[in-house]
């Protein structure tokens, strides 16, 4: 292996959780990966150590100015015992695009993937195998130089933690109810919408809570300038089946370039289903609904893979999609992507990377 | 006193820095204030402890989703030895408005101010007295529940740290050069512009670095929707003297409601100088410049108090303001506000709060 990481084994391994009651992101494995960056020296001292608290100066940049980013991907164990990652180089590339926007130093993409592999290998026993479960991998970077004042940090930590997870939505593939947000804005042109940085998520909490209070699970965001183009859903990208075409927002700076989104588009194209990345107004969707042409809606993301949408609320318009049931395209995409991810289907796209 | 905080004295006090070479935000005093919040229990266990590292789970919300906020104010020591805070209740109120936007629990405003007073009292020897220096006070809140998933944290820490500071701009009251940003956006309607949350600052780093590379010290932001209304400057609010009127952006959600801004407006009104909070386009300013009516520009903020602007660059238009020199209104505002803050002038506005 090109990269050498020092390894300190955890002398007190924890009891593994019951796969039947796994939730999302509340349990962590025995180890974590840490690497430091110092201006002038670069990234150095990559190491695997027991999972445990970080000790940071209270003036660390991350606490005040949120110079931080994260990624998310999953490891699955196939029925024949192989450990599979799904398109991890795309997470590495997205990391560097986020880093560029946040003035965080670039990371070697091979190193990023090798660090994930090394850590997953050590904690491979933590990968649950029950349907819908996985080992969620969370690489993240925090700026930890201690000073007050708005400028880029000269010191960072790149950390990877692992969490055995159950399904993101407790109901599984049950269709969700979404609220079209017309008061709050997640991202706008010239902002950080396409970066996976903490600030975007903090900004979204309030709208999410107000939607929950109204009885909706998630938000469908509209663009910040015109408040009419549909963008994305919570932590996933949005797809609409209108007539015989699947449409999704284009990557023009305000939405996260989802890896699941990219995979959905590739699979649709391969299957010969019409798919378009184009700006779509919420009014077009309401009109399609009235005309009986709004057939399906679903969201795509690492956490839930494909999440069907059963109801979409925009102002006074309550749209029940496909009778509130999962549609055929969403089901087929879920089966295909989840099948490839877990090694049940042949990986004819070359998307999985085995941890050996 | 209504609030009781436990106090653990630092057994190893540090050497105080040389007031002549003080910079901004790089040195910290011997103590800090910490208070915890637990859902169901509320804020509890306010305590003053030796300044030192925080120990946090790597899955703490603040590292991933930037649920965090901060405030900033200063303590001065007057010539007759009194320790003065400047309008600290306004910081407490702004904290709660920020908290509301970020889904962080509210803090009792008296408690907020009493905690600052108790900490400043213990480290009062750290307040430098040289012209332009002060003790900078940084209250901040971080979400530290350990889980992955986008929802509000159930656990927080409210922390106050203190830093003896020199002038924010090393040159002191020397006029700065600003670049009018037309590519990046700091905040937009429906976003978090009026909240003092980390994400806003992380998002601004890139634009700031590009402006530095072009030879400008700071950015003048334009609004995110039309890209034409002037908003604010770096970490301060912007004022323009056009003809005989002083104009500044209104508080309509996208700019931070600066406490210095509020004080500037009050003083101008008191002195009978015309001041307007109104949306102003950059084109109006360029036109005023061409007509010889753009007399002065300055920025207002806790760090620099009043910072005159000598040059403003918008696309190809290079505006040299007041011959690149500090103007009479900026000078008078600086003298008045700084005079009140440091107890040199009588506080006829009732703005200072003494730490006894
Ligand atoms: C805002 C947002 N949009 C979309 C996605 C989907 O991206 P991916 O498919 O890479 O998980 C995510 C992350 O998971 C996200 O946080
Ligand atoms: C974005 C921004 N605008 C304006 C200000 C000025 O506010 P104040 O006068 O309360 O310091 C600050 C903070 O200091 C700020 O961060």
Largest sheet of chain A: 9 strands, mixed
Distance from first to last alpha carbon of chain A? 11 Å
Coarse shape of chain A? globular
CATH class of the largest domain in chain A: Alpha Beta
Bound molecules: pyridoxal-5'-phosphate
Report on the architecture of this protein.
2 copies of one chain form a homodimer. Chain A has 356 residues and is an alpha+beta fold. Chain A has 2 domains: 6-166, Aminotransferase class 4, branched-chain amino acid transferase, N-terminal domain (D-amino Acid Aminotransferase, Chain A, domain 1, 2-Layer Sandwich), CATH 3.30.470.10; 176-341, D-amino Acid Aminotransferase, subunit A, domain 2 (D-amino Acid Aminotransferase, Chain A, domain 2, Alpha-Beta Barrel), CATH 3.20.10. Chain A contains 7 helices and 19 strands. In chain A, strands 1, 2, 3, 5, 6, 7, 8, 9 and 19 form a 9-stranded mixed sheet that branches. Chain A has a 6-stranded mixed barrel with strand order 10-11-12-13-16-17, surrounded by 4 helices. In chain A, strand 16 and strand 17 (305-314) form a beta hairpin. In chain A, helix 2 packs across helix 3. At the A-B interface, strand 4, helix 1, helix 2, strand 8 and strand 9 of A face strand 4, helix 1, helix 2, strand 8 and strand 9 of B. Strand 4 (54-56) of chain A pairs antiparallel with strand 4 (54-56) of chain B. The complex binds pyridoxal-5'-phosphate (2 copies). One pyridoxal-5'-phosphate (PLP) binds at residues 72, 232, 235-237, 256, 258-261, 300-302 of chain B.
